[in-house]
Design a protein that fits this description.
The first copy, chain A, has about 170 residues and is mainly α. Chain A is built from seven helices and three strands, in the order ααβααββααα. Chain A is elongated, with a radius of gyration of 21 Å. Chain A binds a DNA duplex (30 and 30 nucleotides) through α4. Chains A, B: Keywords: DNA-binding, Transcription, Transcription regulation.
DNA sequence: TTAAACTTTCAATAATTACTGAAAGTTTAA
DNA sequence: TTAAACTTTCAGTAATTATTGAAAGTTTAA
């Protein structure tokens, strides 16, 4: 396969995976494009490569910066802004985990805690089932939360080393 | 808080979390409703509780069965079908992990393997960056795949026990 | 058989989400 | 200052995704 075709395929696959996981397809594609670009790119280049509008490129890049996945760069003597993506896969995974935890897991944990404390008649099957489901999910979510916390603090090798110990 | 209000809040929160993770909001809500229902429910009851149409209820329930999260039940002497959700949180987590792996991770792993094998000029920075990014992501994805495999085979206590060892 | 009770399908429509492009805003160099 | 070079905003529109509801299909009991 051609390098150009291979890049294209990577960008498409990444976009599809992103959209299946609730991440805007274009955002995932812009990220993918930057991940396979050795040099930082300008808005113009991104617009052209992915055939997207200036407005879309601008907002998407802003979002990616907000996710901590992309940074602005300036080149000496130039007005234009350049965009560069960290290529360290472990950093990317941690950054995504960190943001999704903050944006999505934390709010739901708060609600689960609240719902776990709802009082009711333990003889009532409606209450019993509600209470069991909510407290069980709350426990699971807290486990996930703790595991993410460990992952965020960890070095890659240590983290996967620990995971691998599970197999032995 | 009222039990009824609490259920409502749980259904909404679950629907929101689902939609943020690429799962149809209604599907997540129907699942949530069944999770807090001690008895199996009919299509009619689900339609009424969530104010959704018959067609939507029917297709959503079919999807949930396809995900292995809900099962049909029949009551003796009755024509109607009843729907029941497994309430074991660990089973639910494993089932979701299993399906998403099959539907989303496996296809992307296949593409990453293919792209990892693309040949090129190691002196070309374009190729070098592409190759590094793709092979690194491929490695990470394979680690996730293996971890999921372990999780799918594991008992809950064993799995979380192993995770907790990471903290010590 | 048949008709009532129930389930499934899917074309039409609604709701949501994403994108465009032009205008407004900002920065820089002369 | 000013005007060129660049970035940001956002109302309007397009694309995608989800839902409805009525018709078609199926099952069961008499």
């Amino acid at each position: 396969m051609e390098l150009t075709a291979a890049k294209q395929k990577f960008i498409e696959a990444w976009g599809k995976l992103g959209s299946e996981w609730g991440i805007n397809r274009t955002m995932a594609q812009v990220h993918a494009l930057l991940l396979v670009s050795p040099e930082a790119l300008t808005t113009e280049e991104i617009m052209k490569d992915l055939s997207i509008s200036r407005g879309n490129a601008n907002m998407t890049l802003r979002d990616l910066i907000g996710w901590g996945l992309v940074e602005k760069q300036h080149k000496a003597g130039e007005r234009k802004e350049y965009f560069y993506a960290d290529k360290d896969t472990w950093n990317i995974a941690r950054q995504v985990a960190k943001e999704r935890r903050k944006r999505e897991l934390d709010p739901v944990l708060k609600i689960l805690d609240e719902l776990s404390n709802v009082q009711g008649d333990v003889k009532d099957p409606e209450f019993k089932t509600f209470n069991k489901t909510v407290t069980d999910i709350n426990k699971l979510a807290k486990n996930v939360d703790k595991t993410l916390d460990t992952m965020l603090k960890a070095e890659e090798s240590w983290f996967w080393g620990s995971i691998f110990k599970m197999f032995k």
